[in-house]
Amino acid sequence: MKLKNRNAVITGAGQGLGAAIAAQYVVEGASVLLCARSQKSLLKVQKELSANLADGQRVLIQVADVADRAQVDALFATAKKEFGHLDILVNNAGIYGPMGPLEDSDWDEWAEAIRINILGTVYPCRCALPIMKQQGYGKIINLSGGGATNPMPRISAYATSKAGVVRFTESLALEVQSDHIDVNAVAPGALATRLTDQLIDAGPEKVGEAFYRRMLKIRDEGGTPLTTGASLCVWLGSAESNGITGRLLSAVWDPWPTLAARRDELTGSDIYTLRRIVPADRGKKWEAS
Q: Would you say the pTM of this structure is higher than 0.90?
């Protein structure tokens, strides 16, 4: 089991991808502390995952809003008390935020998306770092997505926040590399979840005709299996990925199961990172006048 005897905190684990990550973590031997804003959903996941635990393995839950500092502080106090050591943090919690043209969007909702998606990723990292630094080891996995690498008109809060998560991931990775803490971001693919339903419910007049049709196709065809992104999160939480850090990895398109053999090539390169494209990258020679 790839995560045997490892302890993990997983946010946004009451349903969807977060619950799928939690399920694979438990199968791979980890003990988990799951958080979400709904106690009902957490209890359901806890019951499902607790059926076949190994000796000493635990599934703990705690209601927490990742954008509330006091609740996040309490979450990591529980992790430290119950686990003693914390090996993995998976920051999965997130929302789409308002949909529609920026000038028509509710500003408080736009700002709330930034607060949940960015600050709700950064602050849990801040809480986990003292524990991980003390033990000299850790894995931080931040969920990103297509919003980080492609413009998303009419869903600008989501796109902005997810791009911010990736740049934060790259920055923190360099900051804590000497502490043997790996920090990576995951793009799990086009998922058919409640968030997809929200986009469809918003309608083409809000999200745009082309994007609306794409969401319908994802819903009708089932989208990327949740297990695909969860498997990448397992790999990034395991010893197999030690030393691979500061990357945005696509669960669908990147050959991540083979990256351990390419660790030296990745180190010092800008592969799987966000970078500015200049004319030379496209074979053009533009000189300043």
A: yes
